[in-house]
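call fold(seq) -> tokens
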Amino acid sequence: MFDQDAEILLVEDSFDDAAFFTRVFNKADLPATLHVASDGKEALDFVYGTGGHAGRCAGSRPRVIFLDLKLPKLNGMEVLRRLKNDPDTRAIPVVVLTSSEEECDLIESYELGANSYLVKPMDFDRLGESVQRASRYWLELNQTPKR
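ret:
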């Protein structure tokens, strides 16, 4: 079942990685709108409809969040902690999408409530395939509460 109003939030501070993700996402013609936040604070503002995203309906939650860990202003672990500690946002799936292969990052991400942990492949073809597969799974197969 497709939700044509579905939104995906990509939280990525690398302009090149965000542009690549966006290009792959658009090419896959997925049934959702992609939004990009370049730091942790902007990500939370988007989700909660505050700051630069004031006026955005706070009840409109992303279907899935792809979250980098190494972010300016507020790192990915803190974003994950805040989202998963809040009963209003706890059910939003968060996919950590990072270049970190550190076991401590993997463990902490899952302890904080990450739904998935994906390491960005260095090969662009593999990265593109990973982005498409993960996006399709969370949009087309996974069921989330309507709220």
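The first helix runs from residue 15 to 27.
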